[in-house]
């Protein structure tokens, strides 16, 4: 009986293999459809081991050695028992006549044993990696904040980091370098050989240069030119890491002018560095956004990405295009194997079958491309993750079957977390796996459902892919950003067709740059068009007033968002049956995102009709607008954030700006200038004559020159008018011999008239300049103003004489919520209220708009 059953099973398997072979033979030599029997139930047996290894790695990285040992031994013992019982059961069945051993009755035991073995392997790997952080002298030295001489091997590309503006000036620019410390010399002369992962932080000052090699116009630090595998010798202070992670300590490097190189990089890294440098050179002549974005799209080189552009990509959930991802490799492999949209219906596509390349040779070429991709983009964990995800796509294209994709993804996850357990705690790794899983599971079903409702196939595939990835990734993104993007799906759809040509042409420029730079520049110029489109989509989407909504940035918030997503999907299935309801919901969503000013004014009452002066809520900084006609306004200061000021101006309906007045060059007043200039007609920019801080003054000149806007300097006595708006500059004095004590005291102060309304805008003037202003020829003009823009965010440093002379009816203060400066100062607020002024501030009341005049003077908040 058993022999007959086994013979039947064997014959059935041979028949299946023969059928598959016939299908492959029939389709391998021509461009035909894959046989339906190639599809089948998804094999999920590798998913539990992969998830178990992932969870074990995350837990065991911080576990004590005893826990690691106990977990490993226990899992192996239990796995051995399960396998022994399974083998014994099979042996007994064979000795019993007529017993059947076919089927899958033994698979649960085998799967459980596999899970336990993977848990044991993950525990060992995580334990060893966790021990790296505790091994050697650095953890102890970090607790004492000791100074050491260390020899370190760089393990990643150095990156330039400038934190977002949180005060008058941005934080010092720093170069961050991940490295392994190989040798440590302490002050007592002891030398210890070790291998400890650290983060080196090098404070640098970027210097101006006439060279145009840098997109910022500055000479970059020589630290940025270091390649991975280079060994450097540094004198550094060892400090504990701020939030743990995969480093044992932070090295604050001293004397950062020129790094002391004691070991040259490897040949592979030198080649990769040459290729990357060639791509940067080939993109030098492109528009700023394309020049910054193209290296990021191709090889993940984000050195030129400005904080503003980076924020726009995050707001629209397009940040994955700035990092090396599996899609980069997939696009290149598509040229060789064929388009992924046909993988389910066509056995082979692309250049390989048309050139007569066999399947095995095609696989070898795909492997070579993958290896080259890893070398050029750096073999760090994120790139290895991208290569693994690209390999999953390669398998889909090579086989034309989805059945093997989930096991392939599970295998990739398992191997990666065993290779680098720190990936188990990486949000980037989680997002990558979720996105890939969405494309392999949800997207095909959603695409089929859309096609069944007469949606064109290509549009259905693109829409399903974007929606599926967003549905699974949005809860994790919300944890990271405390925000949910409402424009992510349309923005991803709009850039999808541009990513492939930008990536392919960018890789072509990368490959040709070392040997034929003119050809590389031509290819880069062609790639610049789709790259520029991608940047434009990101900027436009981020600037929409309703681009996103705030959301709790916690795992509780993520769970709520997941539940909301499920509810939305269930409701969407019902709505798809009613096209008119779908259209109505689409229109409502569009209006919520775009928020046209006329409609917004009707619904929210903001901005109030007839507003004269508006103070934008831009956090800890200043950005105000003087109305000068329909869609026209004079902007005074730009705040610290381009996105926030752009959004404010869009809400106010400002499209034409005759003049931008930048009172002084502190970053909380000028860093948002790109947002003011974006998409608007700007006549000129007027600044103070005191050009400090130098780097911020240079920033303003660069932004103005890039958009062809002239820059002039204000001086006391200057008078201007546009429409019904007129103003007089009352500070700083025109005398060049008068040197202010600092940038604040050099602020441009304006006395403004808007019909019958008088406003005094004081910038960041401090008491010395305020007293000098009172004594100046403009002093007598300052009495009895209707509105006072209180100087320096309402700080405690105010001159009582100037406040008494101004005697404002309404005092407005621009300050950030929960700022660390104590703005506005309670004493300043109390003094203004004692004079009879109504005091409002953006940190409590949001954006503010002044309306009316005389007895009708009013103020509204958003």
Written account of the structure:
With 862 residues, this protein is α+β, with helices and mostly antiparallel strands. Helices cover 49% and strands 16% of the residues. The protein has 28 helices and 26 strands. Helix 13 (405-419) runs antiparallel to helix 14. It starts with a helix and ends with a strand. The model is unreliable at 1-39, 100-104, 206-218 and 340-347 (pLDDT under 50).
Task: Reconstruct the topology from this structure.
Elements: H1 2-28, H2 47-60, H3 65-95, H4 107-134, H5 138-143, E1 147-154, E2 159-161, E3 174-185, E4 191-203, E5 207-208, E6 218-219, E7 231-239, E8 249-253, E9 260-263, H6 267-282, H7 288-299, H8 307-315, H9 326-337, H10 351-354, H11 359-376, H12 381-399, H13 405-419, H14 427-452, H15 457-481, E10 483-485, H16 488-512, H17 517-543, E11 548-550, H18 555-575, H19 579-594, H20 597-604, E12 611-615, E13 624-627, E14 633-636, H21 642-652, E15 656-662, H22 667-670, H23 673-677, E16 681-687, H24 694-706, E17 710-713, E18 719-722, E19 725-731, E20 749-754, E21 757-761, H25 767-775, E22 787-789, H26 800-806, E23 810-813, H27 826-834, E24 838-841, H28 842-845, E25 848-851, E26 858-861
Parallel strand pairs: 4-8, 14-15, 15-16, 16-17, 21-22, 22-23, 23-24
Antiparallel strand pairs: 1-3, 1-7, 2-3, 3-4, 5-6, 7-8, 7-9, 10-11, 12-13, 12-25, 13-14, 18-19, 19-20, 20-21, 25-26
Helix pairs in contact: 2-4, 2-13, 3-4, 4-13, 6-16, 6-17, 7-16, 7-17, 8-17, 9-11, 9-12, 11-12, 12-13, 12-14, 13-14, 14-15, 15-16, 15-18, 16-17
